[in-house]
Amino acid sequence: MANKYRGEIHAEIGGKIFTLVLTLGALAELEDAFGAEDLVALTERFSSGRLKARDLTRIIGAGLRGAGEPISDDEVARLAVNDGAQGYVRIAAALIAATFGDEAA
């Protein structure tokens, strides 16, 4: 069961249920990937509602790695989820909401 107090979520990716969490290290990884100066800038980027497919891959990959999964963004990009693109958006939005609150998602 996901621990909502730790910001964890569960998601089915590639036919398997995973735990995802944006740890401090995962957030630092995302700051670097998005060129964000700090967490405020990262939150603003997420709350803009304008994310590319590659952004979703990075967010989901960081969440998986934050939970201890040794997986690259390229591997994440090859995994299928239910509902296609909408499924990826839902996973990323749930992860962002669990980390920053619903406003950021």
Short summary:
By secondary structure, this protein is mainly alpha-helical.
Task: Lay out the secondary structure.
Elements: E1 9-13, E2 16-20, H1 24-34, H2 39-47, H3 53-66, H4 73-78, H5 84-100
Antiparallel strand pairs: 1-2
Helix pairs in contact: 1-2, 1-3, 3-5
Q: Mind explaining what this structure looks like?
A:
With 105 residues, the chain is mainly alpha-helical. It contains 5 helices and 2 strands; from the N terminus they run E-E-H-H-H-H-H. It has a two-stranded antiparallel ribbon. A hairpin with a 2-residue loop joins strand 1 (9-13) and strand 2 (16-20).
Query: What is the approximate shape?
Result: globular
Structural class: mainly alpha
Tally of individual helices: 5
SSE string, helices as H and strands as E: EEHHHHH
Relative strand content: 5-15%
Measured distance between first and last alpha carbons: 22 Å
Unreliable spans: none
Strands ordered across the widest β-sheet: 1-2
CA-based gyration radius: 12 Å
Arithmetic mean pLDDT? 92
Helix content bin: 40-55%
Q: Biggest β-sheet, characterized?
A: 2 strands, antiparallel
